[in-house]
Amino acid sequence: MVPLHWYLWLGSLVFCIGMFGFLTRRNVIIMFLSIELMLNGVNISLVALSHYMQDLRGQVLTLFVIAVAAAEAAIGLAIVIALFRNKPTTHLDEIKEMKG
Amino acid sequence: MDITIIKPILPEIVMAALACVVLILELFIHKKETIGVFAILAVAAVSYVIPQSFGSAFNGMFISDGYSVFFKFIFFINLILAVLISIRYLKIERSEFGEYYSLMMFATLGMMIMASATDLIVLYLGLELMALSTYILAGFIRHDRRSNEAALKYFFLGAFSSAILLYGITMIYALTGTTNILAIASQLQGKMTTQLILAIVFLVVAFGFKIALAPFHMWTPDVYEGAPTSITAFMSVGPKAAAFAALGRVFTTGLIDFAPDWRGILIALSILTMAVGNILAIQQSNIKRMLAYSSIAHAGYAVIGVIAGGAEGLSAMMNYLFIYAFMNIGAFAVVIMLRVEGVKGEELEHYRGLAKTHPLAAVLMLIFMFSLTGIPPTGGFIGKFYLFKAAVGAGYAWLAVVAVVFSVISAYFYLRVVMYMYMHEPEGEPAALATSTPLGLALLITTIMVIVLGVYPSPFLAFARLAIG
Amino acid sequence: MVEFFFGFFAIMILFCSVMVVMSRNAIHSVLWMLVMFFHVAGVYLMLNAEFLAATQIIVYAGAILVLFLFVIMLLNLREEMNIEQLIDGWPAGLSLAVAMLVVLILALGSFSVKPWGQWSIEVVEKTTQTKALGKVLYTEYLLPFEIASLVLLVAIIGAVVLAKKKLKS
């Protein structure tokens, strides 16, 4: 039997790798994927907790997270397309229009 | 079917239905102003069902109590004023689409759900509904690169913060086996653990991003400057108030036993926020950017209400946000008035000698700037006064003193706008103003309320007190 | 045996995650992400969450990642590949992430929960996982479910408003 905290460790590792990617990459697509990584880290923890508690709440929350991630992807990519029409780049530092 | 079980959520249902109706109306109505008017009527309909809505529903996931109803009124005021100032502005920006009003209503719906949520899952989904609608609205002027950039930045930081919020919720779920905010306290039984500290930190960080507490404020200036001005006004009040409602609910009911722990974090963030907001605002030459930093500073003041806690602290925080809604949107309404075809009207230079060219606009801006500084007899003074009184009452007199010092510093950049308007001679051609009846109405409401709240605030204070009690 | 599978999935997930973050080419990132999602689905299977494993593949891999690929193909990103992939201040980001990881690992290591819930493996097996999840979702969690539908509606409106080529008026 795999102990619960192995799963929680796995979840936190994925979460932190995603956070590292978000903080250090400036390609919008990869920053976006990093956020998805963070959400997957959370999901792994939730499903594991739900299994070990014998309670389905965690799995329900995971379903909602997946639904919201889909909505977020649609809107985020729409924003990227709108931006790309005005300036063809996906590098955040080249997008800078405002000082500061 | 028994209707009583959905009664507490009736205002939200009406709001959702009417938002969909507005979406459909866009197909048939060519004069988009009409849709704006319809959105305001929808708010009236929703407020009509609110008095019958008190109670709890859906296994205690959702509650309609005085606290949430008070916040809902702030959201309604926010929505009505934002619609009024949008109507003419959208025409000038050539972005007149009916979806705009519908998205505003969905964002307001998300805020209402956040204020009423007593379950962390509902809270999360309400927050996402609000946030996703606001991301779209921030990027609504599609042909403007600044608007695109604002939407992208807002989106990234928002998505990042909601991932952190989720991790915090997961920790709480791991510790208690429940996501119900009211049940959390009884499950934890006041036992402090390392995991709980982490959960609290994650929640503070996530809400800090939404409220724009320093050091999680980096997105605010760019987003506020780039977004359409009407949306800047909308999101500087609504989402902020909603996040305050959620913060107040989670921390003063679910985590009340650990108040000494989270209070320390919030005090540090509050002081840092007031410092960053007020000091960085001084260097800004763009009015929207200056108001962005000012809104950061005001969030720092309002957090004091949560720190003080209790009925007095929370009601002071609610009052402050109520007053802030009027004075902040009022200031943005004046900024919008200066936006005419071909002139952005956002720089401090555009305000040079405004008192000579457009005395009425200058007087209005003067009132809002005085109120934001907190000079009597305006509403801003009353809000700050009760906030600081609550802090002193809770034994945080030194924090109140710090806040007063920062308020004095803030006078420098607020009054600089006044100085530009009154002490400088106008240069070149006097710019025209983009006045319209809805904008005038918005200015009338905000001005009257800012003055009434400053001169005769007792009914409103009593209302907030009643809502809490 | 179970430990072996867990180890395999964990190593693959972590390796793919690192590759997602470090790839120079965004398309490679998306493809690594795809491999990672399949292994996450494997972890869900180990945790008796079949429905979520299917959702993970159908929605995450099938819908979200395909959307990403479409957008990357739509935008032509040739010159991006010559830019340094990390920002100059990457050590700060790395140390923040590592510090958080250490705290999390320490805090979660001693963590255990009691199996107090009513949905033990036997009960779930008897009702089937999809049915059990559906029961909870449509009764207890009806309200969040409805709100999620509104979130998706807003996403549709947003995608049309922001990305459609020409809007009328």
Structure overview:
The complex is a heterotrimer of chains A (100), B (469) and C (169). Chain A has helices at residues 4-24, 28-53, 57-86, 92-95. Chain A is an all-alpha fold and 100 residues long. Chain A has a single domain, classed as Helix Hairpins. Chain B is built from 19 helices and 2 strands. Chain B has helices at 10-28, 32-49, 66-92, 99-116, 120-138, 145-176, 181-188, 194-211, 219-226, 229-254, 259-281, 287-308, 310-337, 354-357, 359-373, 379-393, 397-422, 437-455, 458-468, and strands spanning 55-57, 62-64. Chain B has a two-stranded antiparallel sheet. Chain B starts with 9 loop residues before the first helix and ends with a helix. In chain C, α2 packs antiparallel against α3. Chain C has 2 domains: 1-77, Up-down Bundle (Four Helix Bundle (Hemerythrin (Met), subunit A)); 122-169, no CATH class. Chains in contact: A-B, A-C, B-C.
Q: Could you name the key traits of this structure?
A:
heterotrimer; A: 100 residues; mainly alpha; Helix Hairpins; 4 helices; 0% strand; C: 169 residues; Four Helix Bundle (Hemerythrin (Met), subunit A); 2 domains; 7 helices; globular
